[in-house]
Design a protein that fits this description.
By secondary structure, the protein is of the alpha+beta class. Helices cover 32% and strands 29% of the residues. The chain is built from 13 helices and 23 strands. The chain has helices at residues 3-6, 21-28, 44-63, 77-83, 85-88, 111-121, 167-188, 270-275, 298-308, 337-352, 366-376, 386-391, 416-427, and strands at 32-36, 39-42, 67-68, 74-76, 94-97, 103-106, 130-139, 154-164, 192-196, 207-213, 219-224, 230-232, 253-268, 278-280, 286-288, 290-297, 310-311, 314-315, 326-330, 357-360, 380-384, 393-398, 403-408. A hairpin with a 5-residue loop joins strand 5 (94-97) and strand 6 (103-106). The chain is elongated and about 80 Å long.
Length: 428
């Protein structure tokens, strides 16, 4: 993609209501545009990040044979009244009335809808276990939306739901999904912790939260420095302090802030009992299905990644979810034919090799090109300019390590050796 055609509009101005670094940088890079309190438009640059995150999640969901569907965002009140949540959920539930005076809500989650689907389609234990998932817009009418897309009213979420004959079957799928979630965050490349958690509005028995470690995290995480013990501090009446003996008896307590980006639940029979979602078991008896629920905040991951990895110049994206793999900064592109031809050739070759390239072809100062590139946070950049004309060299820079590699080049067209060097540096 050429910069001049991509519609990236960066700014130095920071709105007064932008409190955390991710909100500031997402606005400054033009990733998002505020429409109203807690409502944001995802612009082309930000939308590419969302799609990269979605792709990783889809790969892991397909790996565990989860079936992708898409449920309506607007849900009828009858199902929520069946489950008992229409009154219980509270003011975060955005309620609507259509022209026929029927009550609906804009779904904050989809347990009722998926249970309705399952009770109509699943009749026998032989059809189980089964996992459905979707990636879809949710709405929760937050009393105080803040921190940009981290605490927005409208957000993008991956929610999955599993159905089982019994608790043993649920436990096996829960462990599979637990590992799938870890694989997601490992592939994205984020530092995270998995903690025991409160079930909140969703209900159920056991649950775990996945938190990206970041200074501006809303949750306080307590964990051992010598074991896998980790828990949200909200589950303590009197939380231990840093350096205390770990509650599990292994090592000392460490305390960090975290941003919740994933939450998995063992729902049990909560919804199947109230909504009469039953199957015929191996003994030909009717039993209510056992359920699991698994959520990932897609749009929140984008913000959490920025909170975890940034510097005074801007964003530092993990390679896996960067909007582009590499940027080409071509100094003098519109004024020098040799530079233009070499840049165009390199751009086309890299694209044909499957590399996602942003080529800066703007007629602006090199300083502005460099500052925009650092602000946007693309992991690698190639600089073609004066040194190419004088010494036949190009520069390959790594954003995260601030390393520069000088590559000797053919003065007319990109050589195979140079292309291989670039591909190797990107992949390392």
């Amino acid at each position: 993609m050429k910069y001049s055609k991509f519609g990236i509009i960066t700014t130095k101005n920071i709105p007064n209501d932008a409190e955390v670094i991710s909100h500031k940088l997402m606005l400054r890079t033009g990733m998002i545009k505020k429409l109203a309190s807690g409502l944001y438009t995802w612009m082309p640059l930000g939308f590419r990040v969302l799609k990269k995150i979605e792709n990783i999640i889809r790969q892991e969901m397909e790996h565990v044979n989860a079936l992708e569907i898409l449920m309506p965002a607007i849900q009828p009140s009858e199902l929520w009244k069946e489950s008992g949540r229409w009154d219980k959920y509270g003011p975060e539930l955005l309620r609507l009335i259509d022209r026929h005076e029927r009550e609906f809500c804009f779904g904050p989650t989809h347990e009722e809808i998926i249970t309705d689907i399952a009770r109509k389609d699943i009749k026998s234990y032989k059809q189980l276990p089964i996992i459905y998932y979707q990636i879809q817009t949710k709405f929760r009418d937050e009393i105080r939306p803040r921190f940009g897309v981290m605490r927005a009213r409208e957000f993008l979420m991956k929610d999955a739901y599993s159905f089982h004959e019994n608790e043993d079957c649920l436990n096996k799928t829960y462990e599979i999904m637990f590992q799938a979630y870890m694989s997601c965050f490992n592939k994205i490349g984020l530092e995270y912790k998995v903690v025991n958690a409160n079930n909140g509005q969703i209900g159920g028995s056991e649950s775990h939260e996945f938190h990206v470690i970041a200074e501006n995290g809303e949750d306080e995480l307590i964990f051992s420095d010598s074991s896998d013990y980790a828990i949200n501090s909200e589950l303590f009446t009197e939380p231990p302090k840093e350096g205390d003996d770990s509650p599990d008896g292994a090592g000392k307590v460490k305390i960090r802030r975290g941003i919740e980006v994933g939450h998995i639940f063992k729902l049990g029979n909560n919804y199947s009992n109230s909504m009469k979602a039953s199957i015929s078991n191996i003994d030909n008896k009717n039993i209510n299905m056992v359920m699991g629920c698994y959520g990932i905040g897609v749009s929140r991951i984008a913000a959490a990644a920025i909170e975890q990895s940034n510097d005074d110049k801007g964003i530092i994206w993990p390679k896996s979810i960067s909007p582009f793999d590499i940027s080409i900064i071509s100094i003098g592109y519109s004024k020098n034919e040799k530079i233009k031809k070499y840049t165009d050739d390199l751009y086309e070759i890299l694209k044909n090799k499957g590399v996602d390239v942003l080529m800066d072809d703007r007629d602006i100062s090199p300083g502005n090109m460099f500052s925009d590139s650092d602000l946007i946070g693309i992991p690698f950049k190639i600089i073609i300019g004066k040194q190419f004309l004088e010494k036949h060299t190009i520069e390959f820079k790594e954003r995260i390590h601030n390393k520069t590699h000088v590559i000797q080049e053919d003065p007319t067209t990109p050589s195979k050796k140079t292309i291989n060097n670039i591909l190797k540096l990107i992949q390392n």
